[in-house]
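Bench log, entry 3. Co-assembly request; chain sequences pasted below exactly as received.
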Amino acid sequence: MRPVRLGMVGGGSGAFIGAVHRIAARMDGQFVLVAGALSSDADRAAASAAELGIRSYDSFHEMVRAEAAREDGIEAVSIVTPNHLHAAPAAAFLRAGIHVICDKPLAATPEQAQQIAEAARASGAHFFLTHNYCAMPMVREARALVAEGALGKIRLVQVEYLQGWLADQPDSKQAEWRADPARAGAGAIADIGTHAWQLAQFVTGQTPATLSADLSSMVAGRVVDDDARIALRYASGAKGGIWISQVAVGQENGLSLRIFGTEGALEWRLPDPERLILSPKDGPARILTRAQDRSASFRTPPGHPEGYLEGFSNIYLDIASIIRRDSRLLDRVPGLDAGLSGMAFIAAAQASSARDGAWVEVGS
Amino acid sequence: MRPVRLGMVGGGSGAFIGAVHRIAARMDGQFVLVAGALSSDADRAAASAAELGIRSYDSFHEMVRAEAAREDGIEAVSIVTPNHLHAAPAAAFLRAGIHVICDKPLAATPEQAQQIAEAARASGAHFFLTHNYCAMPMVREARALVAEGALGKIRLVQVEYLQGWLADQPDSKQAEWRADPARAGAGAIADIGTHAWQLAQFVTGQTPATLSADLSSMVAGRVVDDDARIALRYASGAKGGIWISQVAVGQENGLSLRIFGTEGALEWRLPDPERLILSPKDGPARILTRAQDRSASFRTPPGHPEGYLEGFSNIYLDIASIIRRDSRLLDRVPGLDAGLSGMAFIAAAQASSARDGAWVEVGS
Amino acid sequence: MRPVRLGMVGGGSGAFIGAVHRIAARMDGQFVLVAGALSSDADRAAASAAELGIRSYDSFHEMVRAEAAREDGIEAVSIVTPNHLHAAPAAAFLRAGIHVICDKPLAATPEQAQQIAEAARASGAHFFLTHNYCAMPMVREARALVAEGALGKIRLVQVEYLQGWLADQPDSKQAEWRADPARAGAGAIADIGTHAWQLAQFVTGQTPATLSADLSSMVAGRVVDDDARIALRYASGAKGGIWISQVAVGQENGLSLRIFGTEGALEWRLPDPERLILSPKDGPARILTRAQDRSASFRTPPGHPEGYLEGFSNIYLDIASIIRRDSRLLDRVPGLDAGLSGMAFIAAAQASSARDGAWVEVGS
Amino acid sequence: MRPVRLGMVGGGSGAFIGAVHRIAARMDGQFVLVAGALSSDADRAAASAAELGIRSYDSFHEMVRAEAAREDGIEAVSIVTPNHLHAAPAAAFLRAGIHVICDKPLAATPEQAQQIAEAARASGAHFFLTHNYCAMPMVREARALVAEGALGKIRLVQVEYLQGWLADQPDSKQAEWRADPARAGAGAIADIGTHAWQLAQFVTGQTPATLSADLSSMVAGRVVDDDARIALRYASGAKGGIWISQVAVGQENGLSLRIFGTEGALEWRLPDPERLILSPKDGPARILTRAQDRSASFRTPPGHPEGYLEGFSNIYLDIASIIRRDSRLLDRVPGLDAGLSGMAFIAAAQASSARDGAWVEVGS
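Structure output for the full assembly:
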């Protein structure tokens, strides 16, 4: 099948997430990267594009215009800029009828989020948000198990996302813009909190009604939050918690999800991503692996460890199918709704924390 | 060395924790059980005592009187009754100058706690509270590491204590009195929450200043709490969380402790009790075992798994030494202060939850 | 029930395994230690006995004579001397009609083993051998699963017992006699190899027909083996392997057992003793815990870690029942047959290794 | 940088390892697949090539001729046919000066291996063998640790490679040719045994001098080996063992490596590939992760799990660099020597097993 022609905004040499998107687009051969506005620095943009052997643009404005005009222009674009620079290019490409694959979170401000929402709703093109963890095989299997009632009625949901890389004031490029409220929108709750929020939502199929948050800035001089402890209440009566931290020394990328229901429990941990522990109320726990995954979201037999990049690629693979008109997969690829829900989560968490943990409704 | 003569109140045949105390008292040969008021049911008391080959009393009143009068009367007594029946015997034995080893929590009500406190302060005898987990070797080593600064300044403390045995309405004797507010004082927060509270306190050497709690009763018809999510704030600026549950299906006895500081982190989990993970801020995590434990709180070489009963026995072993006038060990055996702190924790958690999670000071 | 009166030969202060036997005898209150010939050094024997508050003898000869003559003399004796000193006391006590609980391996030489065998067969008293690991709950459950066919026909059996404490020439008392062929009989294959051999035999219910061994002495100047790699062939067509080492740096006490059959597999590891992984041929692996153990070989609910000492105590508990005439338990407590099989294993392994790994029949 | 033009022999639709090679070639964008003789079935070859959008050939003969003649012909070819079909195409491409990337094992017979060896030695092109596991980051770090002496003098080496997928007679295509001695050369020892052999060799830098093997065919009607237990002796005095099985029910792809030296030990397990346990002789074990890997063989920060496909891609990445004249990397990419050593291993194991486990020299 002919690969989908892809462009990229952001992701010049040295950028972490841009390289990840390129690998994800490449892994299954369903995309070919042909154009990019890879950096706000024109020289760096050109050099990065030359290295990749793609058409280079000085700005996304120019890129939209030129690519939309080409017979062989891009069909989709990946936006991998800092959070405050998602909205403008996303809206522009959507308006040009080009599918948008946007890194999370949706935006740095509600206004920017609104801008994307309007453009997406008005566009015939798709908008995708790369909450990659929900595309890992055992997470998809977890969702299937919940949906079919393996846990009974859900009572407790606990998500943790713990990292330690911001325990001090680092001076890396990646750390820098994340520490600036104007560019990042928020700190850890935006960067990793939205992943945690989406993961719980994806697997349980439920969204908390209210939350109570305690955001902290543990490092002297830091303006944004770097640790948050958030209690959740669901309309169903279930309770939950999200604990995120970027000052949790020794934790590399400790995302985990635990769900307890009336009939059973599930546990999944990113550092051991190919095992899903299912504990029925009675009887021994079971170690599910890809041999039990019914979504077939993998490339190799069980026991050949797949991980982060393969999960990310699963999203790109689904996107390629959707672009080719397989709309059934829309159900499992995060898009505008997930993005808006993440923004509502950030807003509610900040509002609650500002009111010393008062319970706040999560808007939609 | 002559073993210490021990009595017991409660713990008739079929009781879980009474049998545990007897094993703990026996394991190192430092105690000899000689007398008991083992049940409020006189026949059962007599039969249980006969089986153990000890002097039997119909009530603790009678037992205090008789034992205090004997030349070879008991020197210490273990109180293993339901929570609301700790205070009266504890006070009576303390007044008679007999050391008291009391199961946790201290009492079912503040008034009962106060009764014990007054008796303990007025007595020349010791009062001990069996928060057994803090006597496990790797927990003692964790405390030593924190004390010597291996973690730097503590930022985050997280304790979980998850069980699933009350996910339904069980009809066991042990479940029954725990479900009655009058006898238990509270639900999960009293039964396992106080363990979690004391564990964090023991290892960190700090007590949270305020807390915000969300207590739940997840099972229809249950009056007491069976799940609680509690946020903690320390005077030092550290934050913490306690999550306890007795409806966490699939969890047998999931106690765990994680502490993150500016220089390193510690993780300990009861299901794997002989390993303590120390993660320095830089460099690889280290798996500490009893080979690194400096408290020497064990009986066998590293690699010969010791667990719950040995930890419990460590408390009895220390108590025997203290009774024989080694007061240095008082520092690591929980007593009245730990008990009162646990009561203050329960009260604060209930008060906060009643006010929808408002931050409440933890009294002392 | 009246506790069984117990004596001890060996196990003076400082001895490791003597103390373990005393704890095991004490833990469930079924034995009372009343007499001992605790050391070949008369002063040390007396001092140790005084500390324990028991009758002291200068030699086991004297002890047999005196105890057999007393109305309240010992009913059973624990022999915890170095390997070459098992036979003489064991035979003497058996001849006096006193039950013998002997530490493993049976003896240091075939002649000594024969001496015990003759005495045991001629005696009305029981002979027990403390292969303690087979009394741990999940090992007993493993045996039950194999017996009921959960694995189908067994194809592969693999036991490892890895320690690192003899990686150098240590100068501890425990290391010293183990390094002397005359006192230990053999090196690692006697000390831990017989445990491995018995464990496989106990769980599978099968004894290998032939073996091929490669014994090594990895440390300069050491005479006995400290590492052995042994291949096994069963009459059934199953194959197996035993790998033991005492120079495996970093391994504290790494005993593990894996069995693969036509229908399923089992894995048990001493460092995580309360979990048994059962992998059916089809479907996910199951994590069995004491909640699934049908032997009820424990004192606390699942999740309250029990380990080495509790397993050891399970043997003593069964012995007490057997002495009180519950012969049903004889099936699961190792005795003379296990001891002789262990001696045959040692002999075959040494013979095979001497012939460069030739396949050798295991005598019986 | 311009991607290397790649061809493929074998790997038509449905083939497992062909798809893996294609992902590995694609992941880092260093190769572009342009031509293939993807199947011996001409229709299937054409259809598979069409799907991939590449030039199709009916046979490798035709492909060599045509590609060698093109200005823009392939620079390298991946050979992913069954074992007995490696030699002819490998020799042909090498003679044409085209680099060969060959799946393992080298060949099905010594004669075929010889054919490759001669062609490789006579060619200016490179020959690579995809023993992919040695390219995983923590394996490379393990090798570096051994090389710098972190373990001291090596005493013990243990490799296991356990799978369960051939516990019955499966009827998949992949299982079918592997069960035919003419096509596979041998059973499990060829398919996974050579991986185990190479892994030990790669990390330790040593090759065993002699071995003693016991090969089995556990499944009725199977001609080739499906289980093997192999003892190793090194010239240095070190001992080792390889246990491989394809009837180990419940094992998905259980490759593991343990090395014990005089100063420390290493353990690595494929199911948990991003952790390497380093146990110094004294002091606690350390959990090394990619944060400690000095080979930088990864694409994402530590904690973002990479696995099998990324390891495979590391080989392709190195090959691209070597083709572009960075010969420094030749040291860590397996080639002809590894292939011939694997053949010698197979031959020695079969010879020893035929002589009931006699010690046999491993030729070179």
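The domain at 153-261+334-354 of chain D is CATH 3.30.360.10 (Dihydrodipicolinate Reductase; domain 2). The longest helix of chain D spans residues 336-354.
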